[in-house]
């Protein structure tokens, strides 16, 4: 079936503007994750949704970042008042369960965000 | 305690050679160690993974070696091919959390 999809693939915005990034997980996957990949860096965990449980927001870098997951499927990551240091590739992943440590996370292609 | 340290940052290997990437961790609660492969413009994809109750796992040309006492693990790519040229990330995860903790990545170039 279809993999994880993300939109837009590229987003250029001006400093101070708000942006919304969308993630469509693999159908039937109950767990959804957001990561950030800065240039030349590893992936940094942002937030994790598992079923109807409260999300793990421990990786969000500031209160300008928020995310929601509607109907247990699509997720939106919102960055308010964007700053230049927010420029990165934002990756979404999903997994079938999220409750097992061996549960494979499948990544989307990412959204490249550039803040001018 | 949450860090996973990866080395080298970049690696150049001749076709047919062995590529070796190393990772070290601190958190003994980690119980799952995957390696991801990422090509430019794509998201990372799971390559191979290991649990700490085994010392080695092999899938084709890819092998993970795991040293629990040293808290280190490594990826070996045998008979490296130009198509293996990509960025490789090690990661770790503990059973009571969904998040993966990633290493900084290794950019591998296999020369023909």
Key descriptive features of the protein:
heterodimer; A: 116 residues; mainly beta; six-stranded mixed β-sheet; 0% helix; globular; B: 112 residues; five-stranded antiparallel β-sheet; 57% strand
Your description of this structure?
With 116 residues, chain A is mainly beta. Chain A has strands at 5-7, 10-13, 19-24, 31-37, 43-50, 65-69, 75-79, 88-95, 106-107, 111-115. Chain B is mainly β and 112 residues long. Helix content of chain B is 0%, strand content 57%. Chain B contains no helices and 11 strands. Chain B is globular and about 45 Å long. The interface between A and B is medium-sized, with 31 and 27 residues.
Radius of gyration from the alpha-carbon trace of chain B, in angstroms:
13 Å
Main beta-sheet strand count, sense and barrel state of chain B: 6 strands, mixed
The coarse overall form of chain A would be: globular
Q: How many strand segments of chain B?
A: 11
Give me the number of helical elements of chain B.
Answer: 0
Write a concise synopsis of the structure shown.
The complex is a heterodimer of chains A (116) and B (112). Chain A contains no helices and ten strands.
Topology:
The complex is a heterodimer of chains A (116) and B (112).
Chain A: E1 5-7, E2 10-13, E3 19-24, E4 31-37, E5 43-50, E6 65-69, E7 75-79, E8 88-95, E9 106-107, E10 111-115
Parallel strand pairs in A: 2-10
Antiparallel strand pairs in A: 1-3, 3-7, 4-5, 4-8, 6-7, 8-9, 8-10
Chain B: E1 4-7, E2 10-14, E3 19-25, E4 30-38, E5 45-50, E6 56-59, E7 62-67, E8 72-77, E9 86-94, E10 101-102, E11 106-111
Parallel strand pairs in B: 2-11
Antiparallel strand pairs in B: 1-3, 3-8, 4-5, 4-9, 6-7, 7-8, 9-10, 9-11
